[in-house]
Amino acid sequence: MWQLYQFPLCPFSRKVRLLMSEKGIAYEMWRENPWEGRDEFLAMNAAGRTPVLHEPAKGITLADSRAICEYFEETVEKNQLINGTAAGRAEIRRLVALFDENFFGDVTGPLLHERMKKRLVYRMAPDSKVLREAMKLAHEHLYYIDHLIDHRPWLAGATMSLADLAAAAQISVADYLGGLDWTGHDQARDWYAVFKSRPSFRPLLSERMEVIQPPSHYADVNA
Predict the structure, then answer these.
(1) Does a structural domain hold residue 68?
(2) Beta partners for 52?
(3) Is the pLDDT of residue 210 over 90?
(4) How far is CA 197 from CA 79, 98, 100, 193, 194, in A?
(5) 216 occurs within a structural domain
(6) In whole angstroms, what is the distance from residue 210 CA to residue 116 CA?
(7) What is the average per-residue pLDDT within 207-215?
(8) Strand pairing partners for 61?
(9) Cα angle vertex 94, ends 90, 100, to 5°?
């Protein structure tokens, strides 16, 4: 069975978990705190980042969420999440990169550093200026999701795709850390509420990080 080395508030781990659940791939989770830099973990991924997947029986180790997702798209036919025409697949990959890179860099990454890592690792108070800027940029990203949903049933087109999983993974962490204000973002909120209702998403909503608790609306599928 696949062993997933992951961190609960790592959005890239969450993306892989969502994909594996949607495809019905069995796995067991292993908690990994990337900042600890364990030698055994670094031996599997020299970058020292989660997620990492290991299959002992087959001797396979996979690192980097995009590489992992592409691997399963190529090897598991069920519920294809990078599908459609060549142009459609390019659009899915564009949006995955947007959320993995831009949303993470603007919103999720700063929130994780200020509200999680500073508290658990450095025992420091968060920088309110950084938090305000992250929440401001979150509005811009939510406006773009509003725009996409105004023109498409799902973010990349007519069907759910890896773009939706990537976006939902980032948003779920930002929402857990209290970094999102949904006011004025009805389209994005409705899209996310539908996603929160999926069986693949429910385990994420039920998990809690030690010390850090999410806002009351976090696990409410109607919020």
Answers:
(1) yes
(2) 5, 63
(3) no
(4) 18, 24, 22, 6, 5
(5) no
(6) 10
(7) 89
(8) 54
(9) 140
What's the alpha-carbon Rg for the chain, to the nearest Å? 17
CATH number where 140 lies: 1.20.1050.10
In this structure, are 96 and 167 located in the same domain?
Answer: yes
Q: Indicate the residue type of 48.
A: G
Query: For 53-98, what is each residue's pLDDT tens digit?
Result: 999 999 999 999 999 999 999 999 999 999 999 999 999 999 999 9
Q: Which residue has the tokens 């025409």?
A: 85
- Token representation of residue 199: 């069986």
| Residue 37, pLDDT score | 87
Residue 121, domain member (yes or no): yes
pLDDT of 223 > 80? The answer is no
Q: Rounded to whole angstroms, how far apart are CA atoms 156 and 57?
A: 36
Q: Give the domain CATH number at 17.
A: 3.40.30.10
The last residue of a domain, from among 75, 107, 133? 75
Please, which residues have CB within 8 angstroms of residue 125's CB and are 6 or more apart in sequence?
Answer: 118
Distance of alpha carbon 11 from alpha carbon 216, whole angstroms: 20
Domain count, the chain: 2
Angle of CA points 146, 194, 91, to nearest 5°: 50
How many whole angstroms separate alpha carbon 93 and alpha carbon 156? 9
49 and 117 within one domain: no
pLDDT, the chain, mean:
95
Residue-range definition of the domain harbouring residue 71: 2-75
Note whether 71 and 103 are same-domain residues: no
Tokens of 147: 């725009």
Domain membership flag for residue 220: no
